[in-house]
Structure formats: C-alpha cells, structure tokens
C-alpha cells in the first residue's frame, strides 16, 4: 500500500510561525497539501514534531498524525520520513512538503503513474535545474528499510534527504518548464504575499 505524508514538522524559522497551520485561499497549508494527495487516491497522514502535536489535534484526527520518533538520532525532513516509516513499515510513502503551495495534482499524478509503471526503483523524485527535489517524491518501504538499517549501523554519514537519495536506486523525472513553479517553497510572508 502507499500512503501520502504531508511534511509539516519543520522549524519554520524564516516564517516565524508554523507553516502547516498558515492559511492560503481559506485553507490551512497542511490541508491544501493533503487535499492534493487525497485527489490522486491516497490516504493521508501528517508528519509533525512533538511541539506541534497538540495544535494539529485541533484540526486533524489524531489517528492521522505521525509524531517524530524522538529515539531516532535525526533532525529535519529525514526524521519525519523515518518516523512515518516506523509507523507504517510496509507502506510506500508519497511525500509532499506542506510549503509547496503551487503544486499541481497532475504533477503528483505523473509521479504516481511513473511508480506504477516501473517498480524497479527505491525512490521516485523530480529533477529541476539538475537538482533533486526530495520533498515531493515516493520512497518505497524497501528503500526506507535500507536507510533505517544504515542509520542503526552508523553508516548514515550525512543526515540529508539528498544523501539518502545517493544511497537508493532512484528514478528521476525531469520537471517540465510549465511545472517549475510547482516546486517553489514558501519560507517567508513576503514570498506568500507575492502569490
């Protein structure tokens, strides 16, 4: 099975407030991302850190929250991803960062179809300007098991998503020019105000 995971657990330092709970077009950022994943047929969960759990309970069913596993010696998105993997060890994870406000469902659908057409890879992501976009991607259960094992064996030398990808068999999809804006991250109020 595959589940959608909206990544909301970042520190949001530049924004100064929890990005997942900001409003855009009368919807929470986290809900906007979740709706896009739901529209391509996925059951969705929200990755949050322990300080966010109580607030997110006010908006989302507790059963849909995955709180970072504190025993993992990690920070950043990888902590959210591996925490989600530990809770759903047999599921492939379709990740979407909550701050990719302009993401289009047809781009997500393209990723899902690429995955369905070839099960030969451990991760499926987009490439934009020759850079990997790790926070909108599909990570297989087998690939995540491998990364978790590397972490447990002290072999995960760097804790970034790009290092994770360098250790997986990755299917890379080139972002079409018309879809470039889909991968914009919004980190400050000024950026959002320009929408």
TrEMBL record:
InterPro entries: MobA-like_NTP_Trfase, Molybde_CF_guanTrfase, Nucleotide-diphossugar_trans
A Pfam family reported for this protein in Swiss-Prot or TrEMBL: NTP_transf_3
Domain MobA-like NTP transferase as annotated: residue spans: 4-156
Gene Ontology terms for molecular function: GTP binding; metal ion binding; nucleotidyltransferase activity
UniProt name for this protein: Molybdenum cofactor guanylyltransferase
Taxonomic superkingdom: Bacteria
Keywords: Cytoplasm, GTP-binding, Magnesium, Metal-binding, Molybdenum cofactor biosynthesis, Nucleotide-binding, Nucleotidyltransferase, Transferase
Gene Ontology terms describing biological process: Mo-molybdopterin cofactor biosynthetic process
Presence of the UniProt keyword NADP in the record: no
Organism: Pedobacter roseus
Gene3D superfamilies: Spore Coat Polysaccharide Biosynthesis Protein SpsA, Chain A
Keyword Transport among record annotations: no
């Amino acid at each position: 099975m595959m589940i959608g995971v909206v990544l909301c657990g970042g520190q949001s330092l530049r924004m100064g407030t929890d990005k997942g709970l900001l409003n855009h077009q009368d919807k929470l950022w986290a809900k906007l991302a979740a709706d896009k994943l739901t529209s391509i047929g996925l059951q969705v969960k929200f990755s949050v850190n322990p300080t966010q759990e109580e607030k997110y309970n006010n908006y989302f069913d507790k059963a849909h929250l995955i709180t970072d596993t504190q025993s993992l010696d990690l920070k950043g998105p990888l902590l959210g991803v591996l925490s989600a993997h530990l809770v759903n060890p047999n599921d492939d994870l379709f990740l979407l960062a909550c701050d990719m406000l302009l993401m289009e469902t047809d781009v997500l659908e393209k990723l899902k179809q690429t995955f369905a057409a070839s099960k030969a890879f451990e991760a499926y992501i987009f490439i934009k300007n020759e850079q990997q976009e790790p926070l909108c991607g599909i990570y297989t259960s087998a690939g995540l098991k491998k990364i978790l094992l590397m972490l447990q064996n002290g072999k995960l030398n760097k804790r970034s998503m790009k290092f994770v990808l360098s250790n997986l068999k990755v299917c890379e999809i080139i972002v079409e020019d018309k879809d470039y804006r889909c991968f914009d991250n919004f980190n400050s109020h000024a950026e959002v105000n320009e929408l």
